[in-house]
């Protein structure tokens, strides 16, 4: 039997925690008549960039990630500031984290996860060249890594990064899947 899915009715929303991330508690009235709470990460929009050099290497940032408590190789990226559009944020994050600039193009967008308000804008950058040293924030400690494209495809398939969806969208946009 197929159900006619409708949005749930939100009954209440309260802020549970405000820090680097904000946590909201949302109470919903469910289709079966029950009411239940969900904890939601309230986060701004974000960007990530699959950046290719003229030598067909992918620029990655190696950094410790506190969620999985591991050092990961990831696409450069970060939050979209209130005064920025996503393309500006992508260019800024690429430059700050790697010191490179390139020809940016949107590859696609996606939700971060079912329990977050973050919407991720995934970009590709072609012909990336180094124009300065990275200019990192006080909480960023990264090493820039250039990975051959073939190795990058294997890395993405391995799932040991937080931006797998952005990587696949970028590879598809560049017709490199």
Written overview of the protein:
This protein is elongated. By secondary structure, it is an alpha+beta fold. The chain contains 3 helices and 10 strands, in the order βββββββαβββαα. Helix content is 19%, strand content 45%. It has 2 domains: 9-42; 46-173, Nucleoside Triphosphate Pyrophosphohydrolase (Alpha-Beta Complex). The mean pLDDT is 96. The N and C termini lie far apart (37 Å). A hairpin with a 3-residue loop joins strand 1 and strand 2. Residues 41-169 form the Nudix hydrolase domain. Keywords: Hydrolase.
Radius of gyration from CA coordinates: 19 Å
Shape, please?
elongated
Low-confidence stretches: none
Looking at CATH, the homologous superfamily of the largest domain is Nucleoside Triphosphate Pyrophosphohydrolase
Mean pLDDT: 96
Say what oligomer this is.
single chain
**Portion in helices:** 10-25%
CATH class of the largest domain: Alpha Beta
Overall SS class = alpha+beta
| Fold-level CATH name of the largest domain | Nucleoside Triphosphate Pyrophosphohydrolase
Number of helices: 3
Count of the separate structural domains = 2
Tell me the total number of β-strands: 10
What CATH architecture of the largest domain would you give?
A: Alpha-Beta Complex
| Sheet of most strands | 7 strands, mixed
Percent of residues in beta strands = over 45%
Order of helices and strands: EEEEEEEHEEEHH
């Amino acid at each position: 039997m197929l159900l006619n899915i409708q949005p749930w009715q939100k009954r209440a929303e309260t802020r549970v925690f405000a820090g680097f991330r904000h946590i909201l508690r949302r109470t919903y009235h469910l289709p079966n008549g029950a009411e239940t709470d969900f904890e939601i990460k309230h986060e701004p929009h974000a960007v990530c960039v699959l950046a290719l050099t003229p030598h067909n290497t992918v620029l990655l940032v190696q950094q410790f990630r506190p969620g999985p408590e591991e050092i990961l190789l990831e696409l450069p990226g970060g939050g979209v500031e209130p005064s920025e559009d996503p393309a500006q944020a992508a260019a800024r994050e690429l430059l700050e984290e790697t010191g490179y600039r390139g020809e940016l193009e949107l590859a696609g967008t996606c939700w971060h996860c079912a329990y977050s308000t973050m919407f991720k804008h995934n970009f590709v950058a072609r012909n990336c060249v180094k124009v300065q040293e990275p200019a990192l924030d006080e909480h960023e400690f990264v090493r820039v890594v250039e990975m051959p494209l073939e190795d990058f495809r294997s890395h993405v398939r391995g799932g040991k990064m937080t931006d797998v969806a952005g990587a696949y969208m970028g590879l598809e946009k560049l017709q490199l899947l």
